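Figure S4 source data
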Amino acid sequence: MITSAALCPAPPLLARELTGSDPVAPELRQACLDATAALLADGPDVVTVVGVAAISRAWPAHGGLDLAAYGPGLVSAEPLVPLPLGLGARLLDQAGYSGRRELQSVGEHEPAAACAALGARLAGTALRVALLVMADGSARRGLKAPGYLDERSFSFDATVEEAVRAGDLAALLALDPVLAAELMATGRAGWQVLAGAMNGRRPATEIRYCDDPFGVAYLVASLRAGG
């Protein structure tokens, strides 16, 4: 049964090797670390990192980032996993977690029902399950954003934030996958996995960060279902 969850974005800048000594987005980095620490404070039996990728599948529990894809000369650990999963695993490492972990991708084109079913399955893998969901919001929130400006991004991201803030995660299952794709909101499937794992429960939530410093919506939150 799921007892707690953390929601973090998955930008490459969370990998310190890609930013050097320059403290890029330090508030975002700290919020992700704090959310991960809070996730572990509940003493879960297993922590499952969920992130969006090309397909839905389980990955090696101690897989690493393909850093060479982002910076020439950087050495990557083996085996390699998708960026969101690798960043989530790093957060667990930085928090000193040495317990059971699983890495699970969800296909970016999976429909809401399939995402919810995956979340329900993950929630049943142990007595006390914690989810670390790595998910980005829209990437079209400014003229210099990766996808340029699309005014629809603001209401879309506000809907996600309001649902998480209120603990009404079932509302995330109603997100339009076509609109999400148009807005480059790659986290849509991950949010819907989280909603499926909660299975209608309304967790207590804490928003730790909500901003778009690079034209991409980043939301960090802690969610506690209890149990």
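Figure S5 source data
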Amino acid sequence: MRVRRSFASRSLPGMRKLAAAMVRCGCALLATLWLCANASAALPRPIARAFLDQRIPLAGVSVYVQELGAPRPLVSHQPSKPMNPASTMKLLTTFAGLELLGPEYRWKTEAYADGALDGGVLHGNLILKGYGDPKITIEQIDALVAQLRAAGLETIGGDLVLDHTFFASQAHDAAAFDGEPFKPYNVGPDALLVNFKSVRFVFAPNADTNAVDLRIEPNLASIAVHRMPQLVPGECGDWRGALQATFSNRRDRADVAFPGHYAIGCGEHDWYVALLDHSHYAGDIFVRAWASAGGRFEGGVRDGHAPLGATPIATLLSPPLYDIVRDINKLSNNVMARQLFLTLATSAHPPPATTAYATEAVKRWLAKRKLVMPELALDNGSGLSRRERIAARSMARLLVAAQASSVGAELVSSLAVAATDGTVRKRFNDGVVADQAFLKTGTLEGVRAIAGYVYGQNGRRFVVVCLVNHRNALHAQPALDLLVQWVYDSSIAQQLNP
């Protein structure tokens, strides 16, 4: 476990040290006064004031704070109110995954030869079957291709057949959530998800040619750029808006244009865009890697099924689940969370996996753990939903159970560390809570949330959950951060008033 850094190790100037110490003492004094004056676990007055200052009524806030091992909560404000948790719902999905599948669980992707392999030529189709791996990168596709080449395969005489049937087929409207179909966070799940189905456009000014250089990663033949931006002098500003980008996206082809301009003061910037459908994206990635490795391919790309009982000629394994959950929680990756959520369905039902089966598996697991959450509403397990609901007290009880679980250390290590990494890397930088809070954040329009653990003085540990649902929720961060700081400082207050 990380330990709190000293002020010296953080290389703060003298005045900054003094200011931080004064803040710490002041917050500790406030916490002491509050603990002495109010034993009812109501929302602390400074925290309430911080929300009200941002025009967030307390009716739109739900808070639950409890020290591990304590019989009563330290703070409890509307603890049973069903709230949209945004991405803090990933805590439920990842904890369930670690327990139901195991920290060492690995997804596989298999390649089958549907035909005779003779003299390096496959007289038939090559079939790729996905099992829901959340993180198949371009490098891993290259590794799979290397396995196939090492097995003696040089020419694929038939088609490349893609088997997505481990997950049930379901329509996905990438624009349905917020009208942003090209945002990678809106990519839907797929049993053969490759590279998050995203393309990176990298722009850089070239003063020598008086033009803008564009690099596309991966550079797929099915993505055509029809117009480049003009290089102009000046500062950067809204560089994406200035590009005036248009994306015409079809299942098998995408046409892109940047008819605007790009300022020389921008330097290099990148833009990730989700294009094509899963089959054509994955197929294009494989065919590109196959050609780069010197292989020949004579057929087309289509969807299909792997033959029952066949033996794979190459298998790609994912990183272990304990690594995957770090990406899901620290970086709040939605499609990875959805892949894991669907995989949970297979812990209770044979494939194909559905969200209904995944929801049933999670609720059965909660019941076995005696974690009663009557208000719980699951949609896709990622929090990127307007329908998902959970209460602050239920989330806190989940975190208490996780801390006592055999997989508790893996869940805690998957959370973003205050002022250090993940979604809270730039938060808590001036407070002593830096490195002492392990948190999952949540952000949607009208929703802000934070949930996790705060490690206080003398080994005290606290579970902190705060869910904000209100049209002014985007202004809630100062109050959320103050709550985390207040919890840390309350451990000092409790030392002074045991």
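DSSP finds twelve helices and 21 strands in the chain. The mean pLDDT is 92.
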